[in-house]
Amino acid sequence: MPKPTPAPVTADQLPDLARAVLKADRFPILATVDGDQPRARPITATWTDGFTVYFANLKRFHKTQEIAANAKVELCFLDKNDDQVRLSGIAELVTDRATQEQAFVRDALLRQYLKSPDNPEFTLYRVTPTRVRFMREWALDYFEVPI
After folding, report:
1. What one-character DSSP code corresponds to residue 12?
2. Any alpha helices (H) in 13-96, and if so which ranges?
3. Residue 137 has pLDDT above 70, yes or no
4. Burial of 31 (C-beta count, 10 Å sphere; 0-12/13-18/19+)
5. In this structure, are residues 131 and 146 in contact, taking their beta carbons and an 8 Å threshold?
6. Residue 21 to residue 34: CA distance in whole angstroms
7. What class has domain 11-137?
8. How much is the pLDDT for 143?
9. Does position 4 have pLDDT exceeding 80, yes or no?
10. Where does the chain have alpha helices with state H?
11. What span, in angstroms and rounded, lies between the C-alpha atoms of 19 and 23?
12. Which residues pair with 90 in a beta bridge?
């Protein structure tokens, strides 16, 4: 089988290519640390603003304690062409009521299951990127994306 040849990428294309991958992936993988053990799980990204990612969570989920102990996280996004974005960042709890309400406007699942930001199980996180990398399928090299 011949080796795949990825489409070339120029530096000025990187931000748009990376944002397209974020938009295309319905269930990115969130990596956290539990003591000395990495933990990864799919999440629903409620929305993105550039490379800042917002996601909802239930307080009882273990990732709540993991993020409280170590706010450094990584998200991996993958599109249908297997292009990927790895976004390293700092997760912070969003307590601003207007932003919490925006999550419910944007996310039908939140409205269906949690009803409102007043649900005591509801938490919202904002991941502010510290590093964003993009890779084309089979390129085997990451490109640093300016943030």
Report:
1. G
2. 14-24, 62-69
3. yes
4. middle
5. no
6. 27
7. mainly beta
8. 94
9. no
10. 14-24, 62-69, 97-106, 108-113
11. 6
12. 72, 128
Domain extent listing, the chain = 11-137
Q: What is the distance between the alpha carbons of residues 120 and 126, in angstroms, rounded to a whole number?
A: 18
Token pair listed for 43: 């999440």
Convert the pLDDT of each residue in 79-106 to its tens digit. 999 999 999 999 999 999 999 999 999 9
DSSP 11: G
- The C-alpha atoms of residue 82 and residue 136 are separated, in whole angstroms, by 7
- Find where tokens 């990451």 sit: 142
Question: From its phi and psi, is residue 51 left (phi > 0), alpha (psi between -120 and 50) or beta?
Answer: alpha
Question: Which contiguous run of DSSP H or E holds residue 38?
Answer: strand 37-42
Cα(29)–Cα(37) distance, integer angstroms: 16
Q: Are 90 and 33 in contact (CB under 8 A)?
A: no
Instruction: Answer whether 67's CB lies under 8 Å from 91's CB.
Output: yes
